[in-house]
Design brief:
3 helices; about 25% helix; alpha+beta; 4-stranded antiparallel β-sheet; about 100 residues
Length: about 100
């Protein structure tokens, strides 16, 4: 699925077209990743999402954007997100570097 490092979007629906639950999954997942932000003061990490992993929408559904740069900064966090999408059968969309 991700042979080379790419930015990608984890969509809020499964490969079978079913909505992913719980409804706040994107915020929860991004909340776990708040510590992966440069110059983040740990005391305030809960107030801001990482610039590398943040909730968004795609096709009018909740989604999570994962920036490829995260793989360089913290490869295990990047791999966790890839594995999360695979394990939960979530649809993903690769984002071109020109975007």
């Amino acid at each position: 699925m991700f042979e080379s490092v790419s930015s990608f979007i984890i969509c809020g629906d499964t490969n079978q077209g079913e909505p992913f639950r719980p409804s706040d999954w994107a915020e929860r997942l991004c909340g776990v990743m708040t510590c992966f932000a440069p110059n983040m003061d740990a005391r305030h990490a809960h107030l801001k999402y990482s610039q590398y992993v943040y909730p968004t929408s795609y096709e009018n559904k909740k989604a999570v954007f994962v920036q490829a740069e995260l793989e360089r900064i913290e490869p295990m966090a990047y791999r966790f997100l890839v594995t999360f999408a695979i394990d939960n059968h979530l649809r993903t969309v690769l984002v071109s570097s020109e975007s």
